[in-house]
Design brief:
The protein is an alpha/beta fold. The chain contains eight helices and twelve strands. The protein has a domain of 196 residues: Metallo-beta-lactamase, Chain A.
């Protein structure tokens, strides 16, 4: 049985990283686990003076990464700590908490989930037990209501002992457009820019740190996933609003290392515009869904999850655009 530990030894706290992680030419994922003695895929890095993020694997959830395939972040204020994304299970949440305790004795008072996907909210079960206030978008709560038990079941299947004691909990506070949290001389804004890749997608802005925890409105390194419910046209419009506000900020996307607005524009908007253009050309020439699956996306083959998502993305965009 694999055992996780909830303490960290010999870690450097002062390193600030704000660079893009380069994907391999064939879209390979790299190491399966960078912190094998913990549930975490990798240890947190310091993004700015008060903002830290544990950058998850840019690959599907596995036992090796314990479901840490998104970014788990936190902000340290003068009176409290805010966590962004509860994690896929209690083990991940506990290990992040242990790391936070090496930096500050302040309580984790708030946890914001960037959407209604399992890796954003399932670990909220742990945070609730620690007395944190759970916050999410109204549409993310609807996803939990409708799909939460399915997310929990799938996580238990791959995570095994990491899933121990993890259960479903609802948000304590929900919002539609904006939510402000004051951590003591540090204001944090949770903001919805509109429809993106999944219901309830939000961005967390820390203006005093010049950091945007973008969530899944923005991608790079990893191919953006398009779901059955994803409206790619609206996503482009939402991205433009986000990019205008965050244009000078350090961007921590939902997946992948900290970077800048140009990088996530290329990894998100430019991809969506290209794919929609190719699909529109097919529709103009009475092409079929089968033709959509054959759209040439080879320019993106270096992105992680390319093999899993490229054809599926094209098919879903085609099916949606048929009725626009």
């Amino acid at each position: 049985m694999r055992i996780w530990i909830t303490f960290f030894l010999g870690l450097s706290v002062g390193t600030t990283l704000a660079i893009e992680e380069v994907a391999s030419e064939d879209g390979g994922y790299g190491p399966r686990d960078k912190a094998p003695e913990t549930a975490l895929y990798d240890y947190p890095i310091q993004v700015s003076g008060r903002v830290f993020s544990a950058i998850g694997a840019t690959q599907p959830p596995t036992y090796e990464n314990a479901g840490h395939n998104n970014n788990l972040s936190f902000v340290i204020g003068d009176t409290a700590v805010l966590v962004v994304n509860g994690g896929s299970n209690n083990a991940l949440a506990s290990d992040i908490h242990s790391y936070i305790k090496t930096l500050t004795s302040l309580p984790v008072k708030y946890v914001i989930s960037e959407n209604g996907q399992g890796h954003a909210f399932l670990g909220n079960h742990y945070w609730k037990s620690q007395g944190a206030i759970l916050i999410g978008h109204v549409d993310a709560q609807k996803e939990i209501d409708e799909k939460g038990y399915g997310s929990l079941s799938r996580m238990r299947e791959y995570a095994r002992e990491f899933a121990q004691d993890t259960g479903l909990v609802n948000f304590d506070k929900t919002f539609d457009k904006d939510y402000l949290v004051n951590l003591g001389n540090v204001e944090v804004f949770a903001r919805a820019y509109g429809s993106a890749h999944s219901p309830g997608d939000i961005t967390v802005l820390i203006p005093s740190e010049n950091v945007a925890l973008a969530g899944d409105i923005a991608f790079h390194t990893r191919m953006p996933p398009i779901f059955d419910s994803t409206d790619s046209k609206s996503w482009i419009e939402s991205f433009d609003v986000f990019a205008n506000e965050a244009r000078t900020m350090i961007i921590v996307p939902g997946h992948g290392a900290p970077t800048n607005i140009a990088t996530v524009t290329a990894g998100t908007k430019d991809y969506l515009v290209y794919l929609r253009g190719e699909v529109q050309a097919l529709l103009d020439n009475e092409g079929s869904l089968e033709d959509a699956y054959q759209i040439d996306q080879s320019r993106f083959k270096h992105w992680h999850t390319y093999k899993e998502l490229a054809a599926r993305n094209a098919g879903r965009v085609f099916e949606r655009m048929e009725f626009e």
